[in-house]
Write a structure and sequence with these properties.
By secondary structure, the chain is an alpha+beta fold. The strands form 6 sheets. The protein has a 7-stranded mixed beta sheet with strand order 4-5-16-11-18-9-8, with no helix packed on it. A hairpin with a 4-residue loop joins strand 19 and strand 20. Helix 8 crosses helix 15 and helix 17 runs antiparallel to helix 19. The radius of gyration is 26 Å and the shape is globular. 32% of the residues are buried.
Length: 476
C-alpha cells in the first residue's frame, strides 16, 4: 500500500517467521487455526497450498516442478520478478504452456502492474487485474491440484485474509476530548507522545457531504493521484482496490479544501512562511478495506494529524527509538526494508511486539476522530472499512529545531521529501523563519540547551569523581 511520498527507497524483507499453518485445499480448517478469509476467497478454483501440506499429502510430488522444466530451480519470488519483465501478450501465451506456468503467469499482482503501466488511469476494475487488462469477463480457471508454494500461498492469503480479532482488541492510546491548546502542547506535543482527539470535526462540512456520490459529482473530470497513475473519482469508486493519496486535492477542487478546518491544536505551521514553495503537506486519502500504509516515519521530521471522515483505521505506532519488528532501516534512513504487505506484518510480526517491554501504541480511529502522530514515530495504518480521511504534516515551535536539523543532513537530496528543492530547503526555510519571526531560532536553541542541562543528572560515578581531571573528589 502506498505511504506518503518520502523519496526514500523501500525494499521488501522476507518474513523471518515460519510460513502460515497448513490449510486444506478448500480452506476448511481456517476456523480451527484462527484465519477468517474474505467471502471472495472461496472463488479461487485452483488451490495453492503451503509446502508443509506436502508432508501430509498422499501425493509424493509437487505439481509445481514438472511444468517449469529448468526454471523449477528458481525461487518463486525470482521467477515472478522475471515474468514481470514480459509484456501482456507474452505472459498470456506463457500461461498456455503448462499448468505450473499458468499459475505463475496468472499471478494477479503481475497483471496489476501491467494495468497501471499500460492503461494508466483509464480503466474500470473488473473483478481481477487480469480481467481488467483484457476488458473481458473473468477468465475461466484451470483445475490444478497438489501445487505447493509458500511464497504464492502467503501472497494469496495476505490478499484474502480478514483482520483477526486479536489484532484489533488492543486500544491503549490516550484519548482526550475538549482539552485546551496549552494542555495539548504540555501533555502531548512537548513530550512527543501520540494522542487520539475526539470531537474535533463536528463543524466540518465534509463530515456530512463527502459521500461517494457527492465526491464523484463534485470532482467531475479532475484526476487524482492513485499510486503511480491518475484517475477520476468516477473510475475509482465502482470497485476500488486502489489507494487514492493526493497532495493537490484542494487546488484541483477548491471546495474540498474549504470543507474542513485545521483543528486548533495544529494551526501553528511554520512551513507556511515558504508559501507556495513549501513541501507537500496535506493529502486526501481514500481507500478500501485492507488498504493503508506500511511502517514509515513522516517526511522531513514533521509531526502530523490524521482525521477520519468516513470509515475507520487501525493504528500501530512505535516511538523513534524503537524500530518495529520486521522493519530494517539503513543507518542513514534512505532505505527501509519491510514486509511487502500490511497483512504480512500482522501475520508474522505482530505477536512478537506484544511481548516487548516497550509495547506499541495502538488504537482504532473512527469517523470524527483525529490521531496526532509526533515527529519520528514509526506508524502503520490499515483501513478496516472503506475510508476517507484528511492528513496534514506541520512544523510548530516545539519541533522547529528538529526539522532544521533534518533539512541540513549531508544526504538531504535523498532524505528531504515533497519538493524539488531539497538541498537548499534548509537555508531557504531558516532565512524565511528569521525574517518572519526574528530571534525565534536563537531563543529556541537557548531553551533547548537549558533543558538539556537541567535534565542531565550526574551518575553515581560522576558524583564521586572529578570528571574533568579523572580523580576522586570527597566532601566532608
Amino acid at each position: 500500500m502506498p505511504s506518503k511520498p518520502k523519496n526514500k527507497k523501500r525494499r521488501r524483507s522476507k518474513p523471518t517467521s515460519p510460513p502460515p499453518p497448513p490449510l486444506s485445499p478448500e480452506g476448511e480448517e481456517e476456523a480451527e487455526i484462527g484465519f477468517q478469509l474474505k467471502p471472495s476467497a472461496s472463488s479461487k478454483s485452483h488451490t495453492i497450498q503451503p509446502l508443509g501440506n506436502l508432508l501430509l499429502s498422499r501425493s509424493t510430488s509437487n505439481a509445481r516442478d514438472p511444468g517449469l522444466g529448468s526454471l523449477r530451480f528458481l525461487p518463486d519470488d525470482l521467477l515472478l520478478d522475471i515474468l514481470a519483465l514480459l509484456p501482456a501478450g507474452d505472459l498470456s501465451r506463457l500461461a498456455a504452456v503448462s499448468k505450473s506456468l499458468y499459475v505463475f503467469s496468472t499471478h494477479d499482482p503481475l497483471w496489476r502492474n501491467l494495468v497501471l503501466r499500460d492503461l494508466k488511469g483509464d480503466f474500470l476494475f473488473n473483478g481481477s487485474w487480469r480481467s481488467t487488462y483484457s476488458g473481458l469477463l473473468p477468465h475461466s480457471s484451470v483445475s490444478i491440484r497438489d501445487f505447493y508454494s509458500d511464497y504464492l500461498f502467503q501472497s494469496w492469503l495476505c490478499a484474502n485474509l480478514d483482520m483477526r480479532p486479536e489484532w484489533l482488541c488492543t486500544d491503549n492510546i490516550v484519548r482526550r476530548r475538549g482539552i485546551s491548546v496549552d494542555e495539548f502542547v504540555a501533555q502531548f506535543e512537548e513530550p512527543n507522545k501520540p494522542v487520539l482527539l475526539e470531537g474535533c470535526l463536528n463543524t466540518w462540512p465534509a463530515m456530512a457531504k463527502w459521500t461517494t456520490e457527492w465526491l464523484v459529482g463534485a470532482c467531475g473530470d479532475e484526476r487524482f493521484s492513485v499510486g503511480p497513475v491518475e484517475m477520476t473519482m468516477e473510475r475509482l469508486f465502482p470497485e476500488r482496490p486502489l489507494y487514492l493519496f493526493d497532495p493537490r486535492f484542494a487546488e484541483k477542487v477548491p471546495e474540498l479544501g474549504s470543507d474542513y478546518d485545521v483543528p486548533e491544536y495544529f494551526r501553528e505551521d511554520l512551513f507556511g512562511v515558504l508559501g507556495k514553495e513549501r513541501p507537500d503537506y496535506r493529502w486526501i486519502i481514500i481507500g478500501p478495506s485492507g488498504s493503508g500504509s506500511s511502517f514509515h516515519v513522516d517526511p522531513n521530521s514533521t509531526s502530523a494529524w490524521n482525521a477520519v471522515i468516513k470509515g475507520s483505521k487501525k493504528w500501530v505506532m512505535f516511538p523513534p527509538e524503537v524500530v518495529p519488528p520486521g522493519v530494517h532501516p539503513s543507518p542513514d534512513g534512505a532505505e527501509v526494508a519491510c514486509p511487502v504487505s500490511i497483512m504480512e506484518w500482522f501475520m508474522n510480526f505482530y505477536s512478537t511486539c506484544r511481548k516487548w517491554k516497550k509495547r506499541p501504541v495502538e488504537c482504532i480511529c473512527k469517523a470524527g476522530e483525529v490521531v496526532f502522530v509526533p515527529n519520528g514515530w514509526w506508524h502503520l495504518v490499515i483501513n478496516l472499512e472503506d475510508s476517507i480521511a484528511i492528513t496534514q504534516n506541520f512544523v510548530s515551535r516545539r519541533n522547529l529545531l528538529n526539522v532544521l536539523d533534518f533539512l541540513k543532513n549531508p544526504n538531504a537530496s535523498e532524505l528531504v521529501s515533497g519538493t524539488k528543492d531539497r538541498t537548499s530547503l534548509h537555508d531557504k526555510f531558516k532565512n524565511a523563519i528569521e525574517a518572519a519571526f526574528p530571534g525565534t531560532i536563537d531563543e529556541l536553541t537557548l531553551k533547548a540547551k537549558e533543558k538539556m542541562a537541567r535534565e542531565k543528572k550526574p551518575t553515581f560515578w560522576e558524583s564521586v569523581a572529578d570528571v574533568n581531571v579523572g580523580g576522586f573528589k570527597f566532601s566532608f
